[in-house]
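Exercise 7. Predict the joint structure of the components listed below.
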Amino acid sequence: MCKNSEFFLMEQTFFISLHKIIRNSNEIMLRKIRLTLAVLFLLGISLLFLDFSGTVQPCLGWMAKLQFLPAVLSMHIVPNAIVLVLTLLIGRIYCSIICPLGVMQDFFAWIGKWKLFRIKKNSKNANKYSYSEPKTWLRLLVLVLFVAMLVSGFNAGAMMIAPYSAYGRIVASFIQPIYIGINNLLASWAEQNDSYMFYQVDVHNNPSVLFIVAGISALVLFVLAFMNGRTYCNTICPVGTVLGYVSKLSVFKMQADEDKCVKCGLCAKNCKASCIEVKKGSPLSIDYSRCVVCGDCQLACAKDALHLKPSFLGRKDDEVDDEEELTAESQSSATENSDSSISRRSFLSVMGLAAAATVSSKEGGDGGFEAIIDKKVPKRHTPLTPPGSLSARNLQQHCTACQLCIANCPNGVLRPDTSLEHLMQPVMEFEKGYCRPECTRCSSVCPTGAIRPITVEEKTAIQIGHAVVISKNCVPINDGISCGNCAKHCPTGAIMMVPVEKDKYKQNEQGWWTDKDGIPVRYEDILMRPTVNTEKCIGCGTCENLCPSRPYSAIYVEGHEVHRTI
Amino acid sequence: MKDINRREFLKLSGVAAATTALASCGGSNNNLGDIDPMGHHDGPVPTGKMTYRKNPKNGDKVSILGYGWMRLPMLPVEQTGDEANPPQEEIDQEQCNKLAKYALDHGVNYFDTSPVYTQGKSEASLGIALKESGYNRSDYFIATKLSNFSPDQQTLEAGIEMFQNSLKNLQTDYIDYLLLHAIGGGGMDTFNARYINNGLLNYLMQQREKGVIRNLGFSYHGDMEFYDQILEQTNKFHWDFVQIQMNYVDWNHSDGKHLYEELAKRNIPAVIMEPLLGGRLAKVPDHVVAHLKQREPDNSVASWAFRYCGTKPNVMCVLSGMTYMEHLEDNIRTYAPLVPLSKEDEEWLEGDTATLIRSYPTIPCNDCKYCMPCPFGLDIPGIFVHYNKCVNKGNVPESQQAKNYYEARRAFLIGYDRSVPKLRQADHCISCGACKPQCPQRIDIPRELTRINDFVEKLKQGTL
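Solution:
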């Protein structure tokens, strides 16, 4: 008991000294720090999605891994602990700094405050918000539904409202194409100048479902944030709900000094979370489950009444006793009735924006080059999931469809699935490239544990599928031209070339081919066809991609539901 | 020793200073226009000084510089980004006309084309350019070829049609020099199929008698056994000239010497192709440049190769495919007039320089594009040209320990994607071998492509 109280004392003194630091620093300074951090996080995470070269990933990858939902799904202790401790300490600071979707909404809300958009001519556009009742039932219902969908495996539904992945989809579908476009301009400029600083990259050919989903979320969020600040975060966002209830227990809270507060309501009018209630006769009440600790109220307060204080210090600031007189201005604004009890919920019907990117291929070709028919994606019974994802089920359960792996895939292999069950989760196809042996990019960027980190060495032994030969497309079998390009490039040596003509040749113990009578025949003189040793095949798709048969390859990879180690 | 040298130097410079002083004293009205401040090589391109060689058969005065109408200037192509079906390139005819006129003005009078050059558009282009030049038909000589490579062209009718088409495209009623195009590949069988069994050579010899063909010869790409056989039939076919590949690298290291000497022995004039090995003797590694420049600081690297060929007395004409005006100017400077190499220089090129160049692991591709189109869509010359460029620039590292490994790797891989679309790169070669017999340089194309792809894989995987 004695030790416990001692510890409690120590703890208290620590928080008090921390409080003194906060207390003594300027509000504007604190706000600057928050804004700077928020912008850094936003840029860092955006860069993770934009950078196709993989350079920023090693230094900024943790930013994605610190995201709450991915951290929960990955069940990693460190990021979960950091977010929880942070929230228990200063409330939902996570929502104001770390969450890119939250910061993005702050940006939209800031636009909404521009003079250009002010509602009433005389009104100060800065004072546009107002208190609204908590929508507790809605928040809890959404959270329960969200968890239920996750548990029941209907991830596609759950991920539509998950904040981090919504942000990822917006960046991947709208910003990355622009980023790559600029890069390609620079690359052509570099090429003219014989420089190798930039190189051309293909823009991801994303399916329209991704554009629609990302477009709708961007539009809804823009309208909500533009009009009322953090509506989404405090009604729908499941992370916001969870952290909201955790932050009720936080040590530091924004608190009003009753001696100073004149109930003018300026704070409430500047609270983008709409969580400050000003009632005459009763102390200022702040709904901490909705407060994102942005500090806007602090700045708005003319009386310097609002401060982040340890909750045990109570509402009275006993350290500061310099009393100030009410200025006429704040008095008048205090009398102003909070007339703007606008209903916060506005229902929107959103038209889907379908940005269908169609690639037309011209017929006929240059006399100097044989025209090349584009490869078509074969129908796979089992879809292919990237090495490290362990199984289709693991991927399905953990993936938040944030598109980070897809945006980072340098070989054009990963793309968003369009099936309902795996909507927008990564799936592999090989018509543009194949899963190169030296690359483990997707496994290293994935923040959710849907694709676990693997090494290049581990990858050589992870079987995600196996190759299947389609004889009717195979060049040596049909055209009598020797080929073997699949076997030549197979990284695991899983493709065996055997004579097309059965029973005409034999292979002796040394591996030499002979005719029936045992007379050696040169390898080049035998027409060979590929066969697959499925035990050695890892399903990387090299054979499928490099097969000369077009539009359908003569060899393709069939996925495995559960990956194996060979 | 040092002292003496120093003293000598001082003495010399003293003399020089004195001369300059004298010159400046007495020459106040000296015509400075005579002095070319830039040195002889960037001065005006000489007119009327071209060296000519006499065709022993009919006395044709052939300029030693022949214009190979093959690597023509092309109009810039708008990039559509469609790798699978790149847009068709068009010849820049206006620039072609200008080049032909300039060449004629400076004494070049031999123009060499073929029905297959530049995707079959070369002959018509040359026809236009020569007509537009304003020169008379008798002022220049036209060489074209019977390029019946594919088996369905190897009938008498198809051969005659090809020849008549050449006359039509070239807007003329006679050909000065007609060549059986690139014989040797496939040996006697192919030769017989193309020209003998179908009676095509008989037809051509009849045309020679009629004067529609003034000189009949062949261009040769093949082994020496068949070469000797075909030359032994000179009495039967009366070869008026033969076009061979010759350059200082091939002289000792390949068949260059034999090709030339067999002709010289028979007094058959030689027309030289590939004096620059498809440009490879113009773009040599830095240390070879230094080696050549040390000898003649003002002469271009390419000029050595041209002078080398011109020095051989039995050479009637040296062909050069000149895409740019600068190439044409440089070659005219070299040959107007030709300053023959000394015996010593000749041996130095054939020996040390050739060894130096050969020690460089470039692929002997000269971008003639005979191998194209590859049935599987590869850009074979594109791949080789990129590889050679990287070899010459030192961007083909031997291992990760190489000093410039990371820069070289980046330059090689990014440059590879820039020069050759991914779908046309070496990893798509299935070694079908269709290209192999087409290559006049007898490069084992599938093997080289495999080798380059292995190198690319090692760079990509970081296992070099």
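Discussion. The radius of gyration of chain A is 30 Å.
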